[in-house]
Design goal:
330 residues, alpha/beta, 7-stranded mixed sheet
């Protein structure tokens, strides 16, 4: 039986995130085995030259082909990983190189489908491929993507978004969910399920599923807001109204709201809810605590409030979340 292989080209460049490059091929490599050789992918790594490429993790990778060589071929899937820099205050910024952007623009014209992994969306955006489209990226650079490219509808919540034959993925581990979705689209849900079982993955988190770490970053730049954040965590079981926080900070309520917007990009109430959801998420993953206990220790007040917060922030329920992401005993 001959194998039906689809050509996947992974873009390489200096400083690329290692897991962005290696994660999807791990998923794709299992398709041929799980279909008894009837179908699969041929993955090649492409770079400007055939010299080793240093990844962000310090691991060097050897390209299979050059951009010029692969541009003469018909590509099924172009996969674009990303790269970031982190400053002294742990603020993350996605990087784009003009030469890589140009190569991606050219290769996209030869590709049936174009996908980005994590902050690779910034490269697609710089290439003009996301104009007028809805897209996602890692939550830590979503604001940057929206600011740099106002013509794109940036949604930091889903783990991946499909717009026709253009796909964008979120956090690094979400590249596996995105890859499974590509497999399902190409070869059906049954094959994708078999691959997911081999990877011991939940199949399948839907594209609308939230990135499951509530972003309490970025780190603020003033002592006052840091004191407020610590005050919130110390008193998370209390009601914690805006008036209470304003009194603690010795400012008016309107000024407090302006401070949160400027420093954290959110409102005091939304930040408090995110902090409570994050605490509840950790308890659901690692303890046997009942929902009633979690409501009490995280300050939600009622179980209904907890459930509504999870639906709003994570697009799931606490019970569903625990079933999928339970890591503790039992």
């Amino acid at each position: 039986m001959s194998t039906v292989e689809r050509l996947v080209v992974v873009v390489l460049f200096e400083g690329v995130d290692l897991l962005d490059v290696t994660g999807p091929p791990e998923v794709f490599s299992l398709v041929q085995r799980e279909t008894d050789g009837a179908a699969g992918y041929h993955v090649v790594l492409a770079a400007e030259t055939l010299d080793p490429v240093a990844t962000s993790a310090g691991v060097r990778i050897l390209p299979d082909v050059t951009f010029r060589e692969v541009s003469a071929r018909s590509i099924d899937t172009l996969l674009v990983p990303g790269s970031v820099e982190v400053d002294s205050q742990r603020r993350v910024r996605a990087l784009t190189d003009a030469s890589v952007v140009g190569r991606v623009r050219t290769l996209a014209g030869r590709s049936r489908r174009v996908t980005s992994v994590c902050v690779g969306a910034h490269i697609l955006a710089a290439a003009g491929l996301l104009d007028g489209k809805r897209a996602t990226t890692h939550w830590s650079t979503a604001q940057q993507l929206a600011a740099d490219h106002p013509e794109i509808e940036v949604d930091a919540e889903p783990i991946f978004i499909r717009e026709g034959d253009l796909w964008t993925g979120a956090g690094i581990s979400a590249c596996l969910d995105l890859s499974l979705a590509l497999v399902a689209d190409d070869f059906g849900e049954t094959v994708a399920l078999r691959v997911a079982r081999q990877l011991v993955m939940y199949l399948k988190r839907p594209s609308g599923q939230s990135q499951f770490s509530v972003p309490l970053e970025p780190v603020s730049t003033t002592r006052r807001i840091e004191d407020l954040r610590h005050h919130i965590m110390r008193n998370i079981t209390e009601q914690l109204t805006v008036a209470d926080l304003a009194a603690f900070a010795h400012v008016g309520e309107r000024q407090l709201t302006r401070i949160f917007k400027a420093e954290l990009g959110t409102t005091p109430s939304a930040y408090i809810e995110s902090a409570r959801v994050e605490m509840a998420r950790n308890q659901l993953e690692s303890t046997d605590a009942t929902l009633e206990r979690i409501v009490s220790t995280c300050g939600f007040g009622t179980t209904d409030t907890l459930i509504r917060a999870f639906r709003r922030k994570l697009n799931t329920t606490p019970t569903e979340y625990r079933l999928r992401f339970r890591t503790g005993p039992g």
